Amino acid sequence: MTNRLTAALAVATVGAFGVLHAQGRGGEWTTTGFDAQRTGWIRTDPRISVDTMQKPGAFGPFKFLWKLKLEHDPTAAGALTEPILLDRLIGFRGFKSIAFVATASETVHAIDVDFGVPLWRYHINYSASPPPVVGGSAACPGGLTAALSRPTAFAPAAMGGGRGGGGRGARSGGGVGEPGKGATTLATAGRGRGFGPDAPQATSGTPGATVPGSAAAAAGAVPGGLPGGARAGSPGGGGGFGGGSFVPGGDAAYVIGSDGYLHALNVQNGWDNMTPALFLPANTRATGLIIASGTDGAAVAYAATTHGCGSQPDAVWAMDLASPQKTVVAFKAGGATIAGAAGPTLGRDGTVYVATTAGSSPMSNAVIALEPKTLKLKGSVTVPKADFSSSPLIVQWKDKDAVVAAGGGKLFVFDGAMLQDGPIASASFESANYDSGALASWLDAQSIRWIAVPLTRGIATFKVIEQDGKIALQRGWTSRDIASPLPPLVINGVLFAASSGTRTAPAVLYAIDAASGKDLWNSGRTMTSSVRGGLSSGQGNVYVPGSDSTLYAFGFEIEK
Known about the structure:
The protein is built from 5 helices and 33 strands. By secondary structure, it is mainly β.
């Protein structure tokens, strides 16, 4: 029995409900970049700290735990998406902590992260009228491209820390069912239908109507056939603790197929909880899916489509999940290319932010603010030659949302409420032409705000300070040499970064003291492939998705 399971059972003695709905100490990794502000920061962690990384304590040394190959067909093997996490799900197998990842070949995998074994998998049947992209290119690879998402509060109680997830529906859970037949939820109860590692594939059904304002209408496309069982609302169903019918926006593993349909998968077995809804045009390159929930419980799905894939201009998309028609609206970037790897970023008031790269469009070199849900233009600013390469990052500065983006060898800070006034602070760094993808931000023990920027050969950091009564950026430490690093993440004072790697020089994961830049640990030659998807972390583990469909887990070994 694992230490984690023992602890969970102890808590269960004082009430299962509390276990199911308790938030992790540092929040759950529910969307790309951890939270709606894309900070990549888990404030606290039960195991990871600068001290435990330097001197093993009760948990032993931080090390490689397991790896799991998720695609064995060489023609299907490809980069995995950033893992999205769920802690302490209860089912007939007991308490489980799960990572959800997807492959480019459109298979979603749920992994038991305590043991590194699969729980279920679900293959998305392509259902659009245009044929799927085969082969693709670096800019438009085809297949599934966006990481999954679970409901994520856009106004967390503590900026950048605390609750990463939650939102509507809170913790998923259910009663205990018969062995081999899953937990008793509305997805399985009364149907006489067991489930195994593979969620069954449904057959083609009748095409649905094009909803005015939907992705289909915006793209001038007609939806193709949908899985018949899913259209009938089967076998989806119960979502939250204690059963009850699933409400779109409730807790589930949400994913967008390359056909543009949004699925809400039951976290216990992979069934569709709701009828898949057309969200994006087919064969676009989707990034940054987030299921954003507000204090009123309403949920909106956001995503961006980039690089002009699928013969569609770059755009930001929003789906009102509370709408029976699943109404979709889009903001098209006027021929500009949306920057970054994390897609749209949300302010604490729900404002949606994106940045654009260099180009000939009037909307190029810009940071753009959009109204929540409607995506009407709220504000924008153009910075000549900025050539933004990162998705925006939102940090709190004196009760305001500051918008941070990198591009053209500079880091820019804007007042989110006054974008038109231009940058309120900026600082230069090397690697002007490197695609940073995304940034990370955290507060140190002295409550100093830091920002980390990926460079061509490492990570540069900046402190956000006050100078002459105004916000300013002060250069901090620069990491050791890390070749083409992925966007970093920060856990309880420890920054993790991974080199992208190549066929001859595989990726390496590094742990660095976020306050000083001191090296704490690295994975050496453990990984045997390059890495393209984003890093994620939860409950003392760090997950690295390999480009050969292998998921790696690093952390502190627990007794089994």
